[in-house]
Structure formats: structure tokens, C-alpha cells
Amino acid sequence: MGIKSQLNSVLLIILYYIIQKYSRNFLTSMFTSVMGNIYNYSCYTNTPIG
What we know:
This protein is mainly α. The chain has one helix at residues 2-45. The chain starts with a helix and ends in a 5-residue tail after the last helix.
């Protein structure tokens, strides 16, 4: 039981680091693409944002 819980915590730590490393890039690219789409849409329809 002790070994299994230790293994689970190690796996969780590894998963946490992987998510932190990739989610930052993922969120940044998603945010920029969404903002770019909003900007393009506002330019296309000639309506101000907000």
C-alpha cells in the first residue's frame, strides 16, 4: 500500500510538471488566436470591440 501511494504521488508530480510546461504554451497560443479572430472579425464587420 505504501509503495503504491508513493508511486501515485510521483506520477501526479510528473503529470503536474508536464501540464504546467505545456499548458502555458497552449493557453498563450489559444489566447492569441482568439484575440486575433476577434480583431479580424471587428475589422471585417467594421464594428468596434466592446
